[in-house]
Amino acid sequence: MKKRVRRAVTLLLVVVVVFTAWQVCRQSEPVYAGKELSVWLQTYAPSSPVGRGSPQWREADDAMRHIGTNSIPVLLQMLRATDGKAKAWLMVLAQKQRVVRIHFVPAAVRNIEASRAFIALGDTAKNGVPELMVVYKEENSIESQGAVLESLGWIGPAAKAAIPLLLSAATNSNTKLRASALWTLGEIHADPDLCVPILVHALGDSNGWVLVSAVHALGAFGIEAQSAAPALSELASSPIAPGKFRADWIQVRLEAKNALRKINRAVVPASNETLPEFEIPLGDPLLSPR
């Protein structure tokens, strides 16, 4: 009996501590239209029922622009989030009690919510680039690093200082990080003499998402990626390679045709095939392939 009482008291104390910390974090968040930043960011979650371009997403974007750079400290904290063993243990304990209801969100979801906030912030978040690079180098998790790379991409050309980091990440052994780094190089589209050779080299990658990201990025460089035209022409006309996932390969071919039109509209004739511009990076670990 005494053992059960001790366990119950310990559990209650743990829950109180977690709940208190959670409340402190909420109280330190910027607020817009009566909602904390974290509430607005839930719109960007991979599980959100609304998509980019929806009224709810546009409303969240508007909130982010109003909060502005005051959101960056919280976003950086979310990008650093990881689910360690201690957190997993606390989550299990919290679910066993009914005193305080606590909703836990996986760290990977927090990472993505934070990265997508930079879509609305764009280049106004350029002062956050140095700290984003620091977060990446901390190697908190693959999900965290991928979200940082995508955040830099949403900032765009103003994140040019991150190019050396991205060039290194573009050859990472992890396919998600390679894909995200290559995609981001295209969004920044600066220093073509350094970036285009890396992107051309990536056209030989065996991973479909990495290949699509490299092709898309070359298109973003436009005429500055003229040296990639022969390789892109080969991809645009190549049959589906044995062992390749059909959907991936079809997207590679379509992206290659789009890239060629951007590089030099005379390279290939207009095509009836269309592929929309990326809305969300292909490296996003919680999105199913489109």
Key features of this structure:
14 helices; 290 residues
User: Low-confidence segments, ≥5 residues, pLDDT <50?
Assistant: 19-27, 285-290
- For the largest sheet, list the strands in their spatial order: 1-2
Radius of gyration: 22 Å
Order of helices and strands: HEEHHHHHHHHHHHHH
The structural class is mainly alpha
Strands, count: 2
Share of β-strand residues: under 5%
- Given the C-alpha coordinates, what overall shape results? globular
Number of helices: 14
Oligomerization: single chain
Mean pLDDT equals: 82
Describe this structure in words.
The protein is mainly α. It has two domains: 2-169, no CATH class; 192-290, no CATH class. The chain has helices spanning 2-27, 37-41, 55-67, 72-79, 85-96, 107-121, 129-137, 142-155, 163-169, 175-188, 192-202, 208-221, 229-237, 246-263, and strands at residues 31-32, 35-36. Helix 8 (142-155) runs parallel beside helix 10 (175-188), helix 9 packs antiparallel against helix 10 and helix 13 (229-237) crosses helix 14 (246-263). The protein is globular and about 55 Å long.
Précis, in short:
This protein is mostly helical. Helix content is 60%, strand content 1%.
Which helices and strands, and how do they pair?
Layout: H1 2-27, E1 31-32, E2 35-36, H2 37-41, H3 55-67, H4 72-79, H5 85-96, H6 107-121, H7 129-137, H8 142-155, H9 163-169, H10 175-188, H11 192-202, H12 208-221, H13 229-237, H14 246-263
Antiparallel strand pairs: 1-2
Helix pairs in contact: 3-6, 4-6, 6-8, 7-8, 8-10, 9-10, 10-12, 11-12, 12-14, 13-14
